[in-house]
User: Fold Adenylate kinase from candidate division WOR-3 bacterium 4484_100.
Amino acid sequence: MRIVLFGPPGVGKGTQAELLADRYHLIKFSMGDMLRQEVAVNSSVGRRAEPFLKAGHLVPDNIIFDMVNNFLIEYQNQDILFDGFPRNLNQARTLEQSLAQLSQKIDIALELYLPDQEIIKRLENRRYCPSCGRIYNCLTDPPKIKGVCDECGKKLIKREDDQESVIRRRLEVYEQETRPLTEYYKELNVYKKIDASVTKEQIFKKISEIINGYTDKK
Ligand code: AP5
Ligand code: MG
Assistant:
C-alpha cells in the first residue's frame, strides 16, 4: 500500500503520520524531517536545502528526487506513507512513474484541511523533539514536563520556519504549488478530503476508516 498525506503547513500531517505508521506498520517517508536531518548533519544536500527551508520555499526538485529514488528502491517491498511529498505536479508525476517501474501505484491520497488562522495558532504553539521527532502542541498536547520530551527526555525546540512571516510564505507556496494535487489525485480516483479541525484522535479514526475500507475491498 502507498499512501500520500498532503495538506498545508501545520495541518497535522506529521502527527497523523506518526500514528498511522505505528498502527499500520507503514514506513514513513517525511520529506521535511529528512531535509532537516540533512541540515543538522551539514551534508551537501543539507547545505543546498537550508536556504529554501529557512525561507519557506520548496527545495528544488532535483535535490528531492535523488532522496526519493534511493528510498523507493530501499523500501520497495514495504508499505509506505508519504508525508509532505509530493508537493507539486512535477513531483507527483515523477513519483507515479517511479512507482510504475516497480509495478506500484498510489492507493490513497489524503488531503487534510484547516483554516489559516488555526494553522498559525497550531504552528506558533508547536514544539518538537530534535532527537526522536515527537511533535507537541503547548496548548492541546503538551509534554508532561514543560519543554522536555516525554519519550527521550531531550529539550524540545521550536522549528526555525515556525515564525509568522515564514508560515505565511509556506501557506502561499502551498496554494500555488501543492493545491493542484487535489485535482490530480481526484482524476486518479484515489483522493479523500479530511477535516483537520477536530482532535488528532478523531482525525486518526476517520483516516483509519478510509484505510480499512480500502484494504477490505482488496
Ligand atoms: P515539512 O516539514 O513537511 O513542513 P510543512 O508541510 O510546512 O508541515 P509541518 O511539518 O509544518 O506541519 P504538519 O502538517 O506536519 O503538522 P504537525 O503534525 O507538525 O516541510 C518543511 C519544508 O521542507 C518545506 O517548507 C520545504 O522547504 C521543504 N520540503 C518538504 N517537503 C518538500 C518537497 N516534497 N519538495 C520540496 N521541498 C520540500 O502539527 C502542527 C502542530 O499542530 C503541532 O503542534 C501538533 O501538535 C498540532 N496538532 C496536530 N494535530 C492537531 C489537532 N488535531 N488538534 C490540535 N493540534 C494539533
Ligand atoms: Mg510535518
Q: What stands out?
A: The pocket of magnesium ion (ligand 2) is lined by residues 13-14, 32, 84 (CB under 6 Å). The beta strands are 2-6, 27-30, 80-83, 108-113, 126-128, 135-137, 191-195. The CA atoms of residues 161 and 167 lie 7 Å apart.
